[in-house]
Amino acid sequence: MTHSAGVPTSMASRSYPAPAAVLELLKPVTWFPPMWAFSCGVVSSGVGAAGHWRIILTGVALAGPLVCAMSQAINDWHDREVDAINEPNRPIPSGRIPGRWGLYIAIVWTLLSLAVAATLGRWVLVSGAVGLSLAWAYSAPPFRLKRNGWWGNAACGFSYEGLAWVTGAAAMAGGALPPVPVLLLAFLYSAGAHGIMTLNDFKSIRGDREMGIDSLPVLLGADGAARVACAVMAVPQVVVIGLLLAWHRPLQAAIVTGLLVAQGLMMLRFLRTPVERALWYSGLGIPLYVSGMMASAFAIRTL
What is the pLDDT averaged over residues 77-104? Predict the structure, then answer.
């Protein structure tokens, strides 16, 4: 039996969310990028893992299941009208996360993230607070940075890649500011992540347009946004290759070059039909991008 909105009556009458629905809201599939970036920071610090496993494991959990998961919850809460158009089966519009539980979960996860970040020292607490603030600013009024694809994607790329990378390196170094090579790579790969975030916007063009969200596919059209995304992902990697050569790391420069060439071939196919192939490129091209991140992290650990 269903009520008029098409939501099963048993779900509509539920006063609290089922654990499976909460897990779906927190989207474990999205946790990988910041966890990987934090790990790149750990590697690039040059500090051995021995004796630092508590810091590493806690930091990885903070980056993914806590801060990133919180960002997914608050985004789904403030996107519930858009999702009702684009993806009505998601936990909030489907009724599996009833009432204001989506907001309550985001608040609880924010407080839990801050508590865990505090156990890793002042620097990690500050960077965690910055990441959480950006997550709220991205999704929630009055800022709602996602209303503009340029600003919103920049905030996500910085949080998911650059901030997580620098935090990992700083945590391993006892809170010290990481050296310039670490900061440069973190900045470049977070800049490239702006393009990765654009790929995610292709699936919601119709709903974004109807709700006044100016994602890049809405602002530039699908073809224009696809070209921008590819350029934004490729150019920082070219700069990384140049830096690795300048730092006398020819092997890692060759690895990143090979990964970029493979991405370029995929980009050519993606550009022909970007809406249909955005998910395809995300699944195959992004793993190559993040593999280059780790190769670069290994390259500078002894600088």
Answer: 93
CA pair distance 187, 162, nearest whole angstrom: 6
For helices 69-78 and 122-139, the axis angle rounded to 10 degrees is 20
Which residue in 50, 89, 59, 83 sits closest to 211, CA to CA? 83
Whether 204 is in a domain gets the answer: yes
Nearest Cα to Cα of residue 41 among 172, 206, 218: 172
Model confidence pLDDT, tens digit, residues 269-296? 999 999 999 999 999 999 999 999 999 9
Taken in order 181, 131, 58, 171, the sign of the CA dihedral is positive
Over residues 67-85, the pLDDT tens digits come to: 999 999 999 999 998 889 8
The runs of H, that is alpha helices, within 158-273 are 164-172, 180-200, 205-211, 216-246, 250-272
Q: Is residue 2 part of a domain?
A: no
Rg (alpha carbons) of the chain, rounded to whole number: 20
CB 210 within 8 A of CB 158: no
Q: What domain range includes position 51?
A: 17-300
Q: Which residue has the higher pLDDT, 152 or 3?
A: 152
**Torsion 113-118-120-124 (CA) sign:** positive
The number of distinct structural domains making up the chain is 1
Is this structure's pTM higher than 0.70? yes
Instruction: Supply the DSSP symbol for 97.
Output: S
Domain of residue 241, CATH code:
1.10.600
With respect to residue 4, please indicate whether it lies within any of the assigned structural domains. no
